[in-house]
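for the writeup, i need someone to sanity check this before i put it in the appendix. the sequnce is what the collaborator sent (i think, or maybe the updated version? ugh). structure was predicted straight from it, no edits. if anything looks off just tell me and ill rerun, i have time this weekend
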Amino acid sequence: MKKQYIGLDVLRGLGLFILVGLHSAFYYFDGLYDLDMENPPLVVTLIGLLLMFAGMFAIISGTAHMTQFLRRIQVKAESTSQLIQYFLVRGGMILVIAYAYFIFTGPGIVNFATRSADNSILVDLIRHGIFKGFSFDRLMYIDSLVMIGSNIILLGLITALFYRLFRSTESRSFCWAYFFSGAGVFILSLLRIPLYEIYSKALETADYPVVFLLNWLVNKNNPVLPYLAFGLFGMWIAAMLSLYSWKRVSRTVLAFASLLLVVGVLLYVNLPDTMLKRGIDLKWYSIMIAQLGLFMLMILGALSLYDYRKNLKPGLNWLSAFLYRFSLGGLSVFFIESVFSACVYRIITLFSPDISFSLPVALIYGFSLAFFWGGMLSIWEKKSYKYGLEYWYGQIAARFGGSAKREKLIFRK
């Protein structure tokens, strides 16, 4: 079976590039708090949807980790305890990075009611010259990295259970167990709608046992319900790729993902528009349905283009290589991009104190910084991304059964 799917790396890089650009744009748009949430401009709605890319990273993570799991079983014949350790170590490292990111360097949590943003420690220090520490909301916030880290741990435990239950990774039962468990978790995610109300009331009344019990399950922005389902479906895709022909896999995923996308879009169009109000309701659930289908189709397209295309030539063109670098070194960029954009903006205001960014200017600002980071990654690639977060992640992971990430980082001309 394949050791690496280039299409997944390019797609992950595309997602990181877009997020870096939109993060830098979104928080410097001066009309942010004056948006009409009842009738938002189309471009703002599209930006809101693009910022909800966590599901794509969850599916990619599930697919990639299942690919590595299958290799470890089929090539290295590792024990269940070794495999559990493999997932726990990697998930734990991502969680450490996640909380360090959101507390010290991450983007703000926007509160439209108070027309303010709850910034990370360093961003607040740079933008406002205030060292206020971090808030309880930031500690409890489930950003995409927290979701990925918790997903890796939970998926590892589920995989160990399935492996013991079915005793073989080459059985159809093992493969389809992920599909049905993913479907079950996704349907169960409807419970997030009433549970979020319970969570919100517990937060208001300082009922912290309930808050801590429900936080990872239902809190904003990317909780276990429904993102564990995204990861399980990613593992299902990887398991199918190891069992069936590409033709069969592509047809199966295409049919299922298309159905989800159509159902999600129809529900979205016919339900009241509450997306930009960030409500947890059926409108939110319709977006999750559509995104699950859309991201599966994107993964299918990426694999078809980069891994299973007929007459596939070795190497990547310049655009694909540009995006691929974000997959390799993009976590380090993602970790510091909010701090860097705050520094650049602070320098700009020193020369033009009254500057105001309209939405087009904010987008130009954000994506100019994203392209700048792309250039930095092309230089850093020649040093194999040494001493970045990915480098240290690979060094530590190598002590616990090897690291596919470490192997990818090595620069090859």
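The chain has a mean pLDDT of 88. The beta strands are 109-111, 116-118.
thx in advance!!
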